[in-house]
Amino acid sequence: MYTHCLLIIIIIITTTNIPHTRSDCVFVFSSASLSECELKCQPHHSGPSYDSLQEVFDRKPFRPAVNLSNPTSANISFTLYAVLGVNEKTQILTTFLWLRMYWFHEFLIWDPDICDGVTKISLPVNNLWMPDIIVYEFVDDDVSQACPYVYVNHTGHIRYDRMLRLVSACNLEIFSFPFDIQNCTFTFGSYMHTIKDVRVKTALPFDQMSDNSKRYLEASGEWELVVILGEEGILKFGIDEWDIITFWVVIKRRPILYVVNLLIPSSFLMIIDILSFYLPPHSVDRASFKMTLILGYTVFLLIMNDLLPSTANGTPIIGIYFSVCLALMVISLLETVIITNVLHHNSMKYRDVPHWVQVVVLKYIGRLICYKWPEEMPKSEVTKTDSNDPWTINTSHTTSSQLSANSVCLSGGVAVPELVEICEDLRAMRSHLNVLQHAERLQDQWCHVGYVLDFLLFRIYLIIITCYALVIISMWSIWMYH
């Protein structure tokens, strides 16, 4: 109490010895403590005097509060100007922000009427106390140019604008790439001052910050802004509490680049692979054509590998799509190998088609897939021969023909050498024609078995690709509109 009274007496004595002018510093005291101080203004000079400002600059290390039990209020808003990069492997988002921050300085107050109507001045930010507001997700140094000045209002409110290159950690989900939507968090708060010293609030509503960012965000990049959401909260750590503001920045990738460079070429190669089933398997080397397609698809994947994101947490669905497409091409090649084996290998061995193969493949499967039999060989005549063909030998008359020939050759009980030689030649020709006719009949049967299996496997392959494409499109659609 004695000290307080002595301080008041000293101030009164000092002020009485100095002649007052209309621009002197006015100290207003209460019975408890100092509450407010206005800056001095000199005659014929606009704004506060340099000496009074220098006194404020000397107090830079101290929080600008007359009563230190009252916290300093800081208000924050930002505008998302550009998304500079998204690194899926390191889970880092790089953005460029226009940051605006307000706080109240109790020692920078003056009366505009006394100070020649000046209501706002600019001061070096390095000479003033500044709240230590940081972004908690910050993982790299800020290399953007800082603004060296702040605007100070006559009411003591300071506005600080700066550009911020923010490199922040973000949990990136790449499963639905390239139709992915990312939700990254920016948490603003004081690094050292607790809630008792610094209070952090928003300077603008969250929807207004979102609209401003959509208006100024560069539209030529890979990402577009969906919305900016936010929430004010308190961070508790032990017995201390910090005032924080959490922003959720939702961005969506523009997929046109990846659709043109990845999905469309891959779809073209798959369509060519499907159309290769219409190549006649008995006259064209379909296996070589499919192997060339697989080689081309492999080279395509190697070239496009740099465009695909890679993380240790998961694989994007487009990578699974490419792997399954390659597997389907390999399955198509195996199907071609099986059909080629049926058409050539079994027919060249002159083996009869087993009865169960005829029943299962030619009868039931052929009817199931609506297989159309050639007009020159209907299904009912697969194992029959045409008796009207002059080159067709009817084996039922072979014995009688041989007996007739023998009787002619042995007419009169005397064998004519010329006739005997002619008869032997006829027997050899008949035997050779019988072998050729039997081989042709077996080859036709195996060809029809191969054609039926080829039609069946082609339809199964087409159904699998169609179902797979529908599943991929559905999953992408669900992730886009989730």
From TrEMBL:
Coiled-coil zones: none
Catalytic activity: Ca(2+)(in) = Ca(2+)(out); K(+)(in) = K(+)(out); Na(+)(in) = Na(+)(out)
Spans traversing the lipid bilayer: 256-279, 291-308, 320-343, 460-479
Main location: membrane
Topological category with respect to the lipid bilayer: Multi-pass membrane protein
Domain Neurotransmitter-gated ion-channel ligand-binding: 54-255
Gene Ontology CC terms: postsynaptic membrane
Superkingdom of origin: Eukaryota
Single GO MF annotation: transmembrane signaling receptor activity
Signal peptide: 1-23
Keywords: Cell membrane, Disulfide bond, Glycoprotein, Ion channel, Ion transport, Ligand-gated ion channel, Membrane, Postsynaptic cell membrane, Receptor, Signal, Synapse, Transmembrane, Transmembrane helix, Transport
PROSITE patterns in UniProt: NEUROTR_ION_CHANNEL
Domain Neurotransmitter-gated ion-channel transmembrane positions: 262-472
Classification via Pfam families: Neur_chan_LBD, Neur_chan_memb
Keyword presence, Ribonucleoprotein: no
Subcellular location: Postsynaptic cell membrane
Similarity-based family: Belongs to the ligand-gated ion channel (TC 1.A.9) family.
Function statement: Forms serotonin (5-hydroxytryptamine/5-HT3)-activated cation-selective channel complexes, which when activated cause fast, depolarizing responses in neurons.
The protein's name in its UniProt record: 5-hydroxytryptamine receptor 3A-like
Organism: Astyanax mexicanus
